[in-house]
Amino acid sequence: MVYVKKVNIKGQDYYYLFHTIRQDAKFLKKSKYLGKELPKNIDEIKTKFLHEINNKDKSDIDKLVESLTPVERKVLPTLKQEHELNAIASKLKLEDIEVLRALSWLEDKNLLKIHKEEKEIIEIDANGVKSLKHGMPETQFLKLLPNTLDKIKEKLSQDEVNISIGKLKKLNAINFGKQISITDTGKKILNEESKEILFLRKLPLELSKLDDKEIYNELRLRKELIKTDTKKLITFQITKLYGEVIDHGIKKNLIENLTKEMLVKEKWKNKTFRRFNITNEVPKIYSGRRHFVNEAINYIRRIWLDLGFKELEGNLVQTSFWNFDALFTAQDHPVRDMQDTFFIKNPSHGKLSNISNNVKIAHETGYKYKWNEEEARRNILRTHDTALHPIKISQLKLNDLPCKYFTLGKVFRNETMDWNHLFEFTQTGGFVIDENVNFRHLLGYLKQFFNKMGFENIKFRLSSFPYTEPSVQIIVFHPVKKIWIELGGAGIFRPEVVKPLLGKDVPVLAWGLGLERILTDYYEIKDLREIYGNDIKKLREVKLFLK
């Protein structure tokens, strides 16, 4: 116990703190000088002084003992007598996993060395247990003789009868007549304990230590007599340090938790707390989170909303009219073939809009062919989210302008999957309708978007689409494949698209961008197929989508 004492030295009073400790067989007195006057925070100084003494004078063994968890302290004394995990668990009435965890921690403290190995163990099965109790089926068969086969079948199962007859005939132990009778050889077999029973009594056995495998090979072919399982056996060897800890003694009254009551009533004073090792690696804890593609989708949604766009949603199944015809894509264009588009079998056709006649006139005037209504009514999985643009534009009135909308969702292409193509992927598109916008505004929107997505160097390449003029592709250089890849397409809707929908030719900026290709740079993905591989380890460890 720490106490204060006033000491007179050459006529002058000085204050000291004293504390007596035991070291082996000796008692030592520790002191601390306080000054000529007693400090006001004497209680705080006492606590600090005691803490310094306790930590300064403790040996490595003391500190090691104080770091043992409750289960380690429980397991430790048994390790001299028991050297297998299962035996320790049984003796201490603990779960195997608790003992294994304790052994692993003790190994980290260099108190033992764990050895793991796999062994094939022969164990008795359900019919083997019955045979030990009632005898082997062939022995039971012999005990029922002489008898008819029908009477024997009342006592034994068909499988037992079959195997008994086969085995006993081979040994010349039975004769067949009106009844089945036992021979002298059979009587001799009946009076001796069978080698099968002797083998079953020895189980469990290690397969590798089996001297005579003939009986094993015979019994394993019989139904549920024996079974062979591969088991992981965990053994350990104690170290020299283990002996030193045992000789030192294991403290059992360590405090594990600091409670509110202990703080309020100061019960923590002069107590020994268990030491915690904060340097050991611990299992990673993975918090719940969205798939990284969904994280990116939410981020992209925020970009467009921050730029003043409204979100536009629609069905995954659309008629060819909205997906192609309303966008001035000719009815004989290759993208409308089976090799590029998924057509719906049932229902195969949908309804046309009340603006279909306007679209028909645009096609027949522009392409000089007869527009086919049935072709336009065919249902498909939308091939681009731009299919939603004409639907919305057709619903607008001139006094709704200017306006701007964005889309974000799945699209489908009948394509062969490779490192750069998927048959189902996500697009983000948008359109701006305004009398005062032009091609430079379009490039400005795209640059702003890609800058927020982390792309500092993108290029625009002139291109051609049936429904935009002028048209561009957004491209970036792939550092691994050493080629330029397309991230999306954009342009200004042609008058043949806008006028049938809105009744007036107004500038409409439009674009459609492939989300997965955009993500490859941020996540350093070299193959688009990796994105939806659903490797749980990768999904847990992939970085958050933050820009």
Output the keywords.
flat; 3-stranded antiparallel sheet; 23% strand; 23 helices; 7-stranded mixed sheet; 547 residues; alpha+beta; BirA Bifunctional Protein, domain 2
TL;DR of this structure?
This protein has 547 residues and is an alpha+beta fold. The protein is 37% helix and 23% strand.
Q: Could you walk me through the main structural features you see in this protein, from its secondary elements to its overall organization?
A:
The chain has 547 residues and is α+β, with helices and mostly antiparallel strands. Among the domains are: 3-57, no CATH class; 293-541, 2-Layer Sandwich (BirA Bifunctional Protein, domain 2), CATH 3.30.930.10. The protein has helices spanning 42-56, 60-66, 70-75, 85-92, 96-108, 126-134, 137-143, 149-153, 158-170, 184-191, 195-202, 214-220, 240-248, 260-264, 292-306, 320-323, 356-366, 373-377, 388-395, 439-452, 495-502, 515-523, 536-541, and strands at residues 3-9, 12-23, 26-35, 112-124, 174-176, 180-182, 205-206, 226-238, 310-312, 317-319, 379-381, 403-412, 424-433, 459-465, 468-478, 483-493, 508-514. Strands 9-12-13-17-16-15-14 form a seven-stranded mixed beta sheet, sandwiched between helices. Strand 15 (468-478) and strand 16 (483-493) form a beta hairpin. Helix 7 crosses helix 9.
